[in-house]
Here is the input.
Amino acid sequence: MNQTPRLVISWLLVAVLLGYGVIETLITAAKLFTE
Here is the structure.
């Protein structure tokens, strides 16, 4: 049971990094399309 919190934290970090990358890509695409 000791590995469960670590596993959850690692997955949360991965999800945050992926989400941040997607948001950055969308913002960049929006800037390109609005110009």
In short: Helices lie at 3-34. The chain has one helix and no strands. Residues 16 and 22 are 10 Å apart (CA to CA).
